Amino acid sequence: MNIIQLTEFAIPHLEKTKGNIVNVSSIVSQKTNQAFPFYNISKAALDHFARNYACLLATKGIRVNNLNPGATNTAFLSRHGITEEMKEKMSKNFSIPLGRWGTSEDMAEFLVFMASEKASYMTGQMINVDGGILIDSPSFKLD
Protein backbone atom coordinates (compact mmCIF):
# COMPACT_ATOMS: atom_id res chain seq x y z
CA MET A 1 0.00 0.00 0.00
CA ASN A 2 1.46 3.40 -0.91
CA ILE A 3 1.08 6.73 0.91
CA ILE A 4 -1.82 7.88 -1.28
CA GLN A 5 -3.78 4.67 -0.80
CA LEU A 6 -3.12 4.65 2.93
CA THR A 7 -4.22 8.28 3.26
CA GLU A 8 -7.37 7.71 1.22
CA PHE A 9 -8.18 4.68 3.37
CA ALA A 10 -7.71 6.73 6.57
CA ILE A 11 -9.70 9.83 5.57
CA PRO A 12 -13.13 8.66 6.86
CA HIS A 13 -11.62 7.74 10.23
CA LEU A 14 -9.63 11.00 10.42
CA GLU A 15 -12.80 12.99 9.69
CA LYS A 16 -14.71 11.25 12.48
CA THR A 17 -11.92 11.54 15.04
CA LYS A 18 -10.67 15.00 14.00
CA GLY A 19 -7.31 13.34 13.39
CA ASN A 20 -4.34 14.56 11.42
CA ILE A 21 -1.42 13.19 9.45
CA VAL A 22 2.25 13.69 10.25
CA ASN A 23 4.65 12.05 7.80
CA VAL A 24 8.38 11.74 8.32
CA SER A 25 10.27 13.11 5.35
CA SER A 26 13.82 14.51 5.46
CA ILE A 27 15.78 17.69 4.89
CA VAL A 28 17.30 15.94 1.86
CA SER A 29 14.02 16.75 0.11
CA GLN A 30 15.50 20.22 -0.31
CA LYS A 31 18.95 19.20 -1.52
CA THR A 32 20.54 17.30 -4.38
CA ASN A 33 22.75 14.26 -3.88
CA GLN A 34 24.64 12.37 -6.55
CA ALA A 35 25.08 9.31 -4.31
CA PHE A 36 21.39 8.84 -3.39
CA PRO A 37 19.31 10.88 -5.83
CA PHE A 38 16.20 8.69 -5.70
CA TYR A 39 15.99 8.88 -1.91
CA ASN A 40 16.07 12.68 -2.14
CA ILE A 41 13.51 12.66 -4.95
CA SER A 42 11.16 10.43 -2.96
CA LYS A 43 11.37 12.74 0.06
CA ALA A 44 10.68 15.78 -2.15
CA ALA A 45 7.62 13.95 -3.47
CA LEU A 46 6.46 13.27 0.10
CA ASP A 47 6.76 17.00 0.87
CA HIS A 48 4.71 17.89 -2.20
CA PHE A 49 2.18 15.22 -1.25
CA ALA A 50 1.79 16.87 2.18
CA ARG A 51 1.22 20.32 0.66
CA ASN A 52 -1.33 19.03 -1.84
CA TYR A 53 -3.21 16.76 0.56
CA ALA A 54 -3.25 19.53 3.18
CA CYS A 55 -5.07 21.64 0.60
CA LEU A 56 -7.44 18.81 -0.35
CA LEU A 57 -8.29 17.84 3.24
CA ALA A 58 -8.43 21.23 4.96
CA THR A 59 -12.17 21.57 4.40
CA LYS A 60 -12.64 18.23 6.17
CA GLY A 61 -10.71 19.54 9.18
CA ILE A 62 -7.77 17.18 8.54
CA ARG A 63 -4.29 18.63 8.86
CA VAL A 64 -1.29 17.18 6.97
CA ASN A 65 2.29 18.07 7.89
CA ASN A 66 5.77 16.59 7.57
CA LEU A 67 8.62 16.34 10.03
CA ASN A 68 11.88 16.72 8.10
CA PRO A 69 14.75 15.50 10.27
CA GLY A 70 18.38 16.21 9.58
CA ALA A 71 21.25 13.99 10.71
CA THR A 72 19.77 11.81 13.45
CA ASN A 73 21.42 8.98 15.37
CA THR A 74 19.20 6.00 14.62
CA ALA A 75 19.64 2.50 13.24
CA PHE A 76 18.70 3.83 9.76
CA LEU A 77 22.33 4.14 8.66
CA SER A 78 23.50 0.77 9.98
CA ARG A 79 20.43 -0.95 8.48
CA HIS A 80 21.56 0.40 5.12
CA GLY A 81 25.15 -0.82 5.51
CA ILE A 82 26.69 2.46 6.71
CA THR A 83 29.46 1.69 9.22
CA GLU A 84 30.62 4.05 11.98
CA GLU A 85 33.73 4.81 9.88
CA MET A 86 31.56 5.72 6.89
CA LYS A 87 29.33 7.83 9.14
CA GLU A 88 32.38 9.79 10.34
CA LYS A 89 33.41 10.43 6.72
CA MET A 90 29.86 11.53 5.89
CA SER A 91 29.89 13.93 8.84
CA LYS A 92 32.93 15.68 7.42
CA ASN A 93 30.93 16.56 4.27
CA PHE A 94 28.50 18.76 6.19
CA SER A 95 28.45 20.93 9.23
CA ILE A 96 25.81 20.98 11.94
CA PRO A 97 25.77 24.49 13.45
CA LEU A 98 24.38 23.22 16.77
CA GLY A 99 27.33 20.81 16.91
CA ARG A 100 25.62 17.44 17.28
CA TRP A 101 23.45 14.89 15.52
CA GLY A 102 19.82 14.75 16.57
CA THR A 103 18.33 11.97 18.66
CA SER A 104 15.17 9.94 18.30
CA GLU A 105 13.89 11.80 21.35
CA ASP A 106 14.46 15.17 19.63
CA MET A 107 12.34 14.02 16.70
CA ALA A 108 9.67 12.43 18.90
CA GLU A 109 9.11 15.74 20.71
CA PHE A 110 8.33 17.47 17.41
CA LEU A 111 6.12 14.62 16.18
CA VAL A 112 4.06 14.79 19.36
CA PHE A 113 3.75 18.58 19.05
CA MET A 114 2.79 18.44 15.37
CA ALA A 115 0.07 15.87 16.06
CA SER A 116 -1.28 17.76 19.08
CA GLU A 117 -3.94 20.45 19.39
CA LYS A 118 -1.12 22.92 20.07
CA ALA A 119 -0.43 22.75 16.32
CA SER A 120 -4.09 22.97 15.34
CA TYR A 121 -3.50 25.94 13.02
CA MET A 122 -0.63 24.30 11.12
CA THR A 123 -1.19 22.38 7.91
CA GLY A 124 0.80 21.79 4.74
CA GLN A 125 4.08 22.49 6.50
CA MET A 126 7.49 20.86 6.42
CA ILE A 127 9.17 21.33 9.78
CA ASN A 128 12.95 21.03 9.53
CA VAL A 129 14.57 19.72 12.70
CA ASP A 130 18.17 19.58 11.61
CA GLY A 131 20.46 21.38 14.05
CA GLY A 132 20.88 24.09 11.42
CA ILE A 133 22.29 21.99 8.56
CA LEU A 134 20.17 23.77 5.97
CA ILE A 135 21.27 27.22 7.12
CA ASP A 136 24.96 26.37 7.10
CA SER A 137 26.83 27.43 4.00
CA PRO A 138 30.48 27.95 3.25
CA SER A 139 31.70 31.47 3.78
CA PHE A 140 33.28 33.24 0.86
CA LYS A 141 36.63 34.80 1.51
CA LEU A 142 36.98 38.21 -0.05
CA ASP A 143 40.72 38.74 0.05
Automatic annotation (TrEMBL):
PROSITE patterns: ADH_SHORT (PS00061). It comes from the Eukaryota. PANTHER family: OXIDOREDUCTASE, PROTEIN CBG09704. It holds the Pfam family adh_short_C2. The keyword Oxidoreductase applies. This is Uncharacterized protein. GO terms for molecular function: oxidoreductase activity. Keywords: Oxidoreductase. The keyword ATP-binding does not apply.
